[in-house]
Amino acid sequence: MGVIVWLASELMFFAALFAAYFWIRNITNDAAAAAGVPSLWETNSAHLDLTFASINTAILVLSSVTCQLAANAAEAGRVTGSWLNPLKWGMRQGFIITAIMGSVFVAGQVWEYFTLFNEGYFISTNQYWSVFFLATGFHGLHVLGGIIAFWFVLARSYMTRTHTHEQTVGAHVVSYYWHFVDVIWILLFGVLYFLR
């Protein structure tokens, strides 16, 4: 129950980021329309690499599948399984693969940031980049938190000789958080990369 309440507070945090995004966007679009010039969103969103971001998004979405496979394995009491057959993975295999995919996603975001930095776009460049870097940066920190949680659950599973109910609950709690982070990214991705 505590995790659900905490995720609700996280939802409010991201709702505030979305509200700020749309509010700033409307103000700058209105000002651009009054001046008869293209808006910040029209001119700056063209610098985003949609193909790269789509691949990075697919990696994060697929990590939700491996995460759920791990949570299901934990529920069944299967801590370890066959590496060769994903349907027979244990909790450990699923969470290790999920943590790796999450790390690849974060590395992709860092790569995208450095590409934008090299092109001269920073958080202080204008309102568009401020909102972009704040929203994606906070999301990236949440993904890092999820990766740390996976390694924590994995470490607990390696330190004990038997799989306990508490470990199953821990696996499910981490999976709830990971799915939440994925859904938030899908919304951010749609708004930041597709909404013109």
UniProtKB/TrEMBL annotation:
UniProt superkingdom: Bacteria
Gene Ontology, cellular component aspect: plasma membrane
BP-aspect Gene Ontology terms: aerobic electron transport chain
Keyword Transmembrane helix: yes
UniProt cross-references to Pfam families, sorted A to Z: COX3
CDD domains on file: Heme_Cu_Oxidase_III_like (cd00386)
Domain Heme-copper oxidase subunit III family profile: 1-196
Gene3D superfamilies membership: Cytochrome c oxidase, subunit III, four-helix bundle
Reactions accelerated catalytically: 4 Fe(II)-[cytochrome c] + O2 + 8 H(+)(in) = 4 Fe(III)-[cytochrome c] + 2 H2O + 4 H(+)(out)
Keyword terms, alphabetized: Cell membrane, Membrane, Translocase, Transmembrane, Transmembrane helix
Transmembrane segments: 6-24, 94-111, 131-155, 176-195
Membrane topology of the entry: Multi-pass membrane protein
Enzyme class: translocase
Chief location of this protein within or outside the cell: membrane
Record-level Gene Ontology MF annotations: cytochrome-c oxidase activity
Intracellular or extracellular location(s): Cell membrane
InterPro entries in UniProt: Cyt_c/ubiquinol_Oxase_su3, Cyt_c_oxidase-like_su3, Cyt_c_oxidase_su3-like_sf, Cyt_c_oxidase_su3_a-hlx
Enzyme Commission no: 7.1.1.9
PANTHER family for this protein: CYTOCHROME BO(3) UBIQUINOL OXIDASE SUBUNIT 3, CYTOCHROME C OXIDASE SUBUNIT III
Family: Belongs to the cytochrome c oxidase subunit 3 family.
Name listed for the protein in its UniProt record: cytochrome-c oxidase
